[in-house]
Amino acid sequence: ASDAGALDLHRSANNLRERWRDFRKDDAVGLIANFVCFFRNVEGTEMTKEIRIACWQTEEDASAWSEKKAASARRRGVAEGVAGLRTAGELQLQLEPQCEIRHQDRCKTCARLVESDRLGVRAPRRCKACGGSGHGYPFF
Fold first, then answer.
1. Which among 12, 30, 88, 106 is most buried, taking Cβ atoms within 10 Å?
2. How far apart are alpha carbons 50 and 88 in whole angstroms?
3. 28 near 65, Cβ under 8 Å?
4. Residue 62: what pLDDT?
């Protein structure tokens, strides 16, 4: 791997650590989940890929967080975007359901799927098979 690629990976890891500290330190209103996947070696290349997915309850929550972080970056004199990485890009999407959604949860005891009998209704808090409690996945 090139020195520039290794430096980008190092910067990306530092940026990720800082972002997670921000989520813990500041109240990230409406944040449901934040996933990050690193693919250190993409077969046949000398590239590393990183994919981040942040899930927010509303578009307003996501916009407020982005604006807050951009303002903070401007105050610190840091360029907006992906922390000075040479090989980075960003895509933001708003996903809307195309039909009614069946809420699902997972049993903490037996790991079975626990889901509502009707569309648009919260999944039961207890597993029908073993009586264990679910994880309590968000429902809004």
1. 12
2. 9
3. yes
4. 87
Dist. CA 34–CA 87, nearest whole Å = 22
Reduced to 3 states (helix: H, G, I; strand: E, B; else coil), residue 20 is: helix
pLDDT band at 80 (very low <50, low <70, confident <90, very high): very low
For residue 68, give the nearest of 17, 14, 19, 138 by alpha carbon. 19
Tokens, residue 23: 């989520």
Q: What pLDDT does 128 receive?
A: 95
What is the residue-wise DSSP string for 24-55?
HHTT-TTEEEEEEEEES--TTSS--EEEEEEE
| 82, pLDDT greater than 60 | no
Q: Please report, in angstroms and rounded to a whole number, the separation of the first and last CA atoms in the chain.
A: 45
